[in-house]
Amino acid sequence: xxxxxxxxxxxxxxxDFWNISxxxxxxxxxELPENKKSLVYSRLVRRIRTxxxxxxxxxxxxxxxxxxxxxxxxFLKLIHAITTNVTHLFxxxxxxxxxxxxxLEMMTNQxxxxxxxxxxxxxxxxxxxxxxxxxxxxxxxxxxVKVIASDIDTEVLSKAQEGVYDVNPEVVEGNPYLKKYxxxxxxxxxxxxxxxxxxYVIAPALRKHVEFKTINLLxxxxxxxxxxxxxxxxxxxxxxxxxxxxxxxxEKVSSVMQSGGxxxxxxxxxxxxxxxxxxxxxxxxxxxx
Length: 289
Ligand SMILES: C[S@@+](CC[C@H](N)C(=O)[O-])C[C@H]1O[C@@H](n2cnc3c(N)ncnc32)[C@H](O)[C@@H]1O
Fold this sequence. Notes:
This protein is an alpha/beta fold. The chain is 41% helix and 18% strand. It has two domains: 14-82, Orthogonal Bundle (Chemotaxis Receptor Methyltransferase Cher, domain 1), CATH 1.10.155.10; 93-163 and 203-288, Vaccinia Virus protein VP39 (Rossmann fold).
């Protein structure tokens, strides 16, 4: 096969690409096939400039040396640069309707319930869950419900903890949860500027429900979580993993889940050929057998 060295600001040989691709897959599960070469270039070029490195080969060596010495700081920056963190509040609304209905049912005979958002990104998913939880707890005040929000990427998790989102006011108006649990942000420093009409912060009452953790789904994370887990939101992350990595992940997920608990996947994800431990209730909604 002919070597394609991209004629750009920095040298990026096929060897450099495959070294980075293999390192990313080995440490995060994310697959980077050949057609991602230009994406990897465009997403990492800024790191190479910032770190004043000569080329992609030098960047690979720096990240790999860090990992070899148990320091994953630059690797996490690399992951942050190449992963897609796209998310929004109440993405796939039907999952949250299903959560509300089944959570209320479960709360009648279960006093402690744990919900895990395992690829939480900037937090839109766990805060949406927390809104549903807060509402359900008003109807069943004797229960305790904990939401655990985790991600491999520490940068997105700190944004998640801020809980600030840019939302169209019409969307807020049209969603009773958002109307109730989002507050328009107007800080003192904004006093003389036009209002950021679209910037909202989550209501303080939600903060007590959510706990944030850094978890790499590829690792053995089971001991980091309370068990059993009753609901798992694993949405729009396994799409980046190989079938084998998905199988290994759901073996672990299944082992920590309560029988009768629910699992939600992203719109283009499925457990077909991945795990037999779940009953498929509807597209992307599964029940642990
Ligand atoms: C597209 S976002 C999904 C956000 C949210 N679940 C949703 O569906 O709206 C994918 C997230 O998966 C995270 N991710 C990728 N590989 C991961 C891994 N090995 N362990 C944990 N999180 C990972 C990324 O950091 C990113 O925040």
